[in-house]
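User: Before I run my own analysis I want an independent prediction to cross-check against. Here's the chain; please return only the structure tokens and, at the end, one sentence I can use as a sanity check.
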Amino acid sequence: MAFEQTFKNIDNVLYTDDGCNGELDYIEQKSWILFLKYLDDLDKSRKIACELQDKPYSPILDKGYRWGDWAMPKNKKGVYETHKALVGDDLTEFVNMKLFPYLRKIEANGDGIKSKIRVIFNEVRNKIASGYNLRDIIEQVDELKFQTSEQRHELTYLYEGSLNKMGNAGRNGGQYYTPRPLIRTIVKVVDPKIGKTVYDGACGSAGFLCEAYKYMHDKVKKTADEEKLQSSTFYGKEVKPLAYIIGIMNMILHGVDSPNLINTNTLNENLADVQEKDRFDYVLANPPFGGKERAEVQQNFTIKTSETAYLFLEHFMKYLRAGGHAGIVIKNTFLSNTDNASIALRQKLLEECNLHTVLDLPSGVFQAGVKTVVLFFKKGEPTKKVWFYQLNLDRTLGKTDPLNEDDLAEFVKLQKTKKETENSWSVDIADLNENYDLSPKNPNKVEEVDERTPKQIAKEIKKLSDKSNKLLDEIIGML
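Assistant: Structure tokens:
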């Protein structure tokens, strides 16, 4: 791939810089520089479009702050004029003391991309300590282009690779990254249609929104369809600044020029205030689990709990339009916990929505080893029967052997008809106990029973021990 070596070179430079520590910093610093390069290419595309229509064009950024002014000054022939380029301490000082302050105060004036600029640069800072390293990275990034679908596809591939590394970087990185094969599978099952809205209130790096865009974009038949996808289809919220920045960059690389993402704490919204105009047709999400919310946040919900994932699930149910569909990842313990909040939330889900499918995943899908399930439901009708599919693989998942789409192909095929197999079964809601226990208990899988007596087991242990002692004696005799 033409740009792959460029990405590797950038990572190598960041690795040597004193201000950057690990994959989280690498992706953050790449993101803000890539974003400014993207603005330069967007400016060029907009200018050409205006010229073709014989209209005047006003650049996104003021003179002096555009990519071609400070990052890569070029002459009229497009040749890089190195003698005019800032470097070392001069470059660092300009970026920290002039460029960032300007971007943080830029007037939006109704331009969606300008409003994103303000939000991004009010949250991010330049961590690249060496102005020489920064100059090196800028020159590398300048080689990357956003102007054709092929170029964007290649950049998307590389950026996703960086996100994957970040997801493997440990606890803090994993919270932003959901394995893409799982996301693509969830999107296939939910099957979002053009003209409808898609929402993720805990969007992280916007993986669900990006994959939904790709899925829907492949079905575009007219210009109006693409315009809807660009402006009024995908909506996300994210509380953490770094994840928000990465999400915007990820959506831009996937082809959504001005993403409808908001940097906010979703759980601060009072569900009593939600109106029909606030709702969405599809919800796709992997909300954070294991977190704890304060008492004042819990007051925004009908079911009081400090568990972040449970609050998000109620939030999603409230924001889903009647007849709308959802695919949501959650810890498998939600299906069986006996605390009051878990029981009440399961009851609410089953009574207000049709929980038609539960995908039970093995522990290695997420690097943290947490066991999860995916809930697929439709709002507006009660659940009568739940179809379970248990993903049983003949290998242990991990960094070197992660989940892939082939692993989930049978699930996608069987889900259409809810067929019962060795790995799938259905449960009637009328048969549940008073706790609405939905534990994935596969009735079609017969567990092997060890029928040996204690005496037989003891004899086999002794036999193995005698064999080990004999081998040890032979080794000693050889020394």
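Sanity check: The chain has a mean pLDDT of 89.
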